Amino acid sequence: MGYKDETEISDFQLWDKKRKNGSLFAFDIELTARCNNDCRHCYINLPAGDEQALKKELSIEEIASIADQAIELGALWALLSGGEPLLRADFKDIYLMLKRKGLLVSVFTNATLIREEHVALFRKYPPRVIEITVYGVTEQTYEKVTGRPGGFQAFMRGLNLLIDGGVKLRLKAMAMQSNAHELPAIAAFCRQYTKDYFRFDPQLHLRFDRDEVRNQLIRSERLSPEQIVALEQGDAERFTALQQGCSKLIVDEFAHTESDHLFYCSIGEGECNISYDGIFRVCSSLWAAGTTADLRKTTLREAWQILVPKVLGMRSQRAEYLENCRICPIVNLCLWCPAHAELETGELDLPVLYFCRVAEARAEAISKTTGDSQP
Amino acid sequence: MSVSLETIYVQSEDVVSRIIEDELIIVPLVSGIGESDDDLYTLNETGRAIWSRLDGAKSLNQIAEELLEEFETEAETVQKDLLGLVEELVNRKLVMVR
After folding, report:
1. End-to-end alpha-carbon separation of chain B, Å?
2. CA–CA distance from B97 to each of B7, B43, B61, B87 (Å)?
3. Which residues of chain A have pLDDT under 70?
């Protein structure tokens, strides 16, 4: 007879089946848009005491219903993010409810609200992973980014509680003007405590709520293309990966693409996002009109099975897109995607000059070190 | 730990089993199940037939008889597989003696 398959998780045939069937793998749910930090670069945060935002948040019953629908569609992974998810008084109940449904639950937190009770919770009911962003490794830098006096001390206290409690963590960083000088130290710090790998992200998204004052601040925090390349070159691990992946990242054949499809990334391949007030998105940054669904008015199944194919089928006739981004051989080095283009320009199919400059700088750096004359 | 055909076993309350894309996935809820907190378990059709019967009501002998009816194979093979799987499940704390 024989009764079991000795297989690593990553090799489960299940993943192939799910990919083939276009079924749902995972969903990210922003438990709140509120945060106790006020980070300069944040694309979502509202004040911790924002009553309006609080009122709009999905209740635990609504989250349970969405989770049940996701499970019916085959989801195995759930990510709880925010805002700061630990601001919710019912965080523990939500976390346990999702775990008990047989989901593999991960949590994104800034760690500043971690208490002994959270450590006990995570020790007994382990998350798939807890990801923490490290904004700085000195009080001055951390609090400049987060805008919160006492934040660094709270962060270190929470982090140490988790580390001492043996909870597995993945540490990451956002790269911006306010912490650029400290990034090597941040990277070293993160690599010391992360469970597997460290990554930093220089891509500062614009606000989901399109708040122009905050967007100006985000733009002012963005690193220049030269700074990004210098950072990546200074990080041997990352730059080696970029070089090794060069053949996949720079694709000359793209220049001959005739397709006018907008989306050719991996969106819709098994994952979706749900905002704190129940708005379904195919990817977290995609807020354009006609690409979202309100899960308080429609079902997740309808959103997944009707809206997603519709979004993936969207096309563009705009010359600026068809003659630039769509055929760009270095688009894989670029921060551009329709979702970010829309946040930047109001249109899904307009190029974004800053993104072009970053891609060009990266391509030039790679070609210099790999000996290619032309990226 | 050795298992016996006379004993009744039950799935642990600390795991959740789910059918996804026709595969049985066993998801541990708490730490200390399996070798690491990252472990997931999947069973093939036979394992699934055994797992679904570990309901805290039937002894392994009774389960063996049901399996003999379902799978056209030797009684010795059924018992060997049944004992082998249940022993492994017990060792990993996925099932327990009722």
Report:
1. 15
2. 7, 20, 14, 11
3. 1-20, 245-256, 370-375
Question: Rounded mean pLDDT of chain B?
Answer: 90
Distances in whole angstroms, Cα of residue A47 to Cα of each of A42, A84, A134, A139, B5 = 12, 10, 20, 21, 61
User: Nearest Cβ partner of A3 from B16, B39, B46?
Assistant: B46
Instruction: Kindly list the strands in the beta sheet with B95-97, ordered across the sheet, starting from the edge strand earlier in the chain.
Output: B55-59, B8-11, B95-97
Which residue in chain B has the smallest CA separation from A106? B38
Contacts of B87 in chain A (CB under 8 A): none
**A359 CA to centre of own chain:** 20
Domain over B8-93 is classified CATH 3.40.50.360: no
Confidence class for position B72, pLDDT limits 50, 70, 90:
confident
- Which residues of chain B have a CB within 8 Å of the CB of A23? 21
- How far is A145 from A217, CA to CA, in rounded Å? 11
Q: Do B73 and A1 touch (CB under 8 A)?
A: yes
Task: Specify the pLDDT at position A251.
Answer: 66
- Hey, are the CB atoms on A102 and B18 less than 8 Å from each other? yes
Per the CB < 8 Å rule, is A4 touching B88?
yes
The beta-carbon neighbor of A102 closest among B16, B31, B67 is B16
pLDDT in the model for residue A373: 45
Record: contact B20-A76, CB cut-off 8 A? yes
Boundaries of every domain in chain B: 8-93
The domains of chain A, with CATH numbers, are 15-223+266-314 (3.20.20.70), 250-262+316-375 (no CATH)
Of A2, A17, A125, the CB nearest to B29: A125
Residue of B nearest to A123 (CA): B31
Closest residue in B to A97 (Cα) is: B29
Task: Quote the pLDDT of residue B86.
Answer: 95
Residue with more model confidence, A54 or B34: A54
With an 8 Å Cβ cutoff, are B43 and A3 in contact? Answer: yes
Compute the half-sphere exposure of residue A134: CA atoms within 13 Å on the CB side of its CA: 26
- What proportion of chain B, given as a percentage, has pLDDT over 70? 94
Cis peptide before A83 (omega within 30 of 0): yes
* Beta-carbon contacts below 8 Å between A and B: 79
The question of ipTM being above 0.95 is answered as no
